[in-house]
Automatic annotation (TrEMBL):
Signal peptide location: none
InterPro entries with a match to the protein in the record: ArsR-like_HTH, WH-like_DNA-bd_sf, WH_DNA-bd_sf
Protein name: ArsR family transcriptional regulator
Region (Disordered): 1-21
Organism this protein belongs to: Streptomyces cacaoi
Length: 198
């Protein structure tokens, strides 16, 4: 019997919606963890996420099979660290392609799941604080706003690694901020001759 046999889900079970959702949740959690910490083994993922190491091992291999992650370089031993798949940027900067598209997809999926299931959440959690705004900022001001958001979150960051620091009623909350300049549409530029509006 191979390691894959030991760690694979039991045969003979139909793939019902509950199992499919569970698999999706495990893989999403693993991808989010890898995006956060860089590399992780199945044992480390299990300790952080609360799943069994066998389940994490199985889904890490599935993610690798589908091209999302890859084995990270390591120096022997039985531990098998994984990392996000490394891509070469085609933008000409020579930097690794950011987690961007995959992260946004996970954020959007999590948001849609919240919208669909929030009526099932405990009463105190049936609301959110989603908002958006457009502000006219200089590049320096945009950076200052982003830094202010990071500072506001800083007191809560250690709760990820220190479960005992979490208040009893604390739950994981998605905090997503995207500050980016709104570029004009081509028709806007044509109508103004490329000049800025006063």
């Amino acid at each position: 019997m191979t390691e894959d046999d030991l760690n694979s889900p039991p045969p003979g079970r139909t793939r019902g919606p509950d199992r499919t959702l569970r698999e999706h949740e495990v893989r999403t959690a693993l991808l989010e963890l890898l995006a956060e910490v860089g590399t992780v083994t199945a044992t480390e993922a299990a300790a952080r996420l609360g799943y069994s190491s066998g389940l994490c091992s199985f889904h890490l291999r599935q993610l690798a099979r589908h091209g999302h992650i890859e084995e990270a370089p390591h120096h022997g031993g039985r531990a098998r660290p994984w990392r996000m798949k490394q891509h070469t940027s085609t933008a000409g900067a020579g930097e690794p392609e950011p987690f961007g598209d995959l992260a946004r997809g996970l954020e959007d999926e999590s948001w849609q799941r919240w919208l669909a299931q929030r009526d099932e959440a405990p009463a105190a959690w049936r609301h959110d604080e989603a908002f958006s705004a457009v502000s006219y900022l200089t590049p320096e001001e945009m950076s200052r706003v982003a830094e202010a958001i990071r500072r506001a979150l800083a007191p809560y960051q250690d709760r990820e690694q220190r479960p005992l620091a979490r208040p009893e009623d604390a739950r994981p909350v998605a905090l997503i901020a995207r500050l980016f300049p709104l570029l004009p549409h081509a028709t806007d530029e044509e109508g103004t001759g490329g000049a800025g509006r006063g």
